Amino acid sequence: MRRYFTLVGRALRLRCPVCGKGKLFRGWFSMHGHCPQCNANFQREPGFYLGSIYFNYGLTALLCTIISVSMMFNRRVEQWQLIAVTLSIAVLFPIWFFRYARSLWLGFDQYMDPRQGETGTGRK
Ligand SMILES: [Zn+2]
């Protein structure tokens, strides 16, 4: 369980899942190919980050559903306001969450298929 929280913490800080020190991103959308600290490969196979779309889409859909349903039951909210807020979230949230979705996917992959040299996890 400690290893799980270590990997989630590293993912939320956008750090390398193997060493926890190297940054995953050099810009808003551009990732390093390898960890600047431990040289772990961040692109484990072609199309690797396709799985991060599950995280991004799932959380965006959940968030839109919760907010739009809660706004529907508020009588002071107009229909156009509900659409504007939901549409804004549906467009802007995935852009903001892009890096975290990739980072969480990388951490999930590290959890399910650990690489050699993982440090600070309490498990070998
Ligand atoms: Zn690293």
What key phrases describe this protein's structure?
0% strand, mainly alpha, disordered C terminus, elongated, binds zinc ion, 124 residues
Helical percentage: 40-55%
The main pleated sheet reads as: none
Give the ligands present. zinc ion
Strand percentage lies at under 5%
Rg calc = 18 Å
Tertiary shape: elongated
Q: N-to-C SSE series? A: HHH
Per DSSP E runs of 2 or more residues, the count of β-strands stands at 0
Number of domains: 1
Query: Which structural class fits the helix and strand makeup?
Result: mainly alpha
CA(first)-CA(last) distance: 13 Å
Low-pLDDT segments: 120-124
Q: What can you tell me about this protein's structure?
A:
α1 crosses α3 (79-112) and α2 (52-72) runs antiparallel to α3 (79-112). The chain is mostly helical. It has helices spanning 2-12, 52-72, 79-112. The protein has one domain (2-112). It is elongated, with a radius of gyration of 18 Å. Zinc ion (ZN) is lined by residues 16, 18-19, 21-22, 35, 37-38, 40.
